[in-house]
Specification:
With 123 residues, the chain is mostly beta strands. It has a single domain, classed as 3-layer Sandwich (Rieske Iron-sulfur Protein). 7% of the residues lie in helices and 46% in strands. The protein has a six-stranded antiparallel β-sheet, with no helix packed on it. Strands 5-6-7-8 form a four-stranded antiparallel β-sheet, with no helix packed on it. A two-stranded antiparallel sheet has the order 9-10. The chain binds FE2/S2 (inorganic) cluster. The site of FE2/S2 (inorganic) cluster (FES) has 9 residues, from loops.
């Protein structure tokens, strides 16, 4: 049995293409890219910082802090700690910035759209 949590009406979704919702005690980032919606934890698995201001490119989002990149559909990590403050850093210095954290996926959530309303679905 799954649970649905109402997030917003599609007509109220911000034109910026991103919105953060609190579901239980978890901040969930919903991204609209093209005509598709994606939901991921608004918490980068590197240092737990928010992904909401990250750059979206198709079905990917890059963390605004150290550039780790994630697949919005699967949560898979595509690139890990590539820069600092928007500047790319050399490969050898990534280790320092990683702070011992290994590449990890970001949590993804299921969304349901029904009658113009967006719901998050959990098992
Ligand atoms: S907090 Fe996201 S890459 Fe460091």
């Amino acid at each position: 049995m799954s649970n649905r949590t109402f997030l917003t009406s599609l007509s109220d979704f911000p034109s910026s293409g991103k919105a953060v919702f609190k579901v239980g005690d978890q901040p969930v980032l919903v991204v609209k890219s093209g005509e598709s919606f994606y939901a991921i934890a608004n918490k980068c698995p590197h240092l737990g910082l928010p992904l909401a201001s990250g750059k979206v490119d198709g079905e990917t989002i890059a963390c605004p802090f150290h550039g780790s990149k994630f697949d919005l559909k699967t949560g898979q990590n595509l690139d890990w700690v590539t820069g600092f403050a928007g500047m790319r850093i050399p490969e050898w210095s990534r280790r320092l910035l990683e702070m011992g954290k290994q590449p990890a996926s970001v949590q993804v959530y299921s969304l349901v759209i029904e009658e113009g309303k967006l719901y998050l679905e959990t098992a």
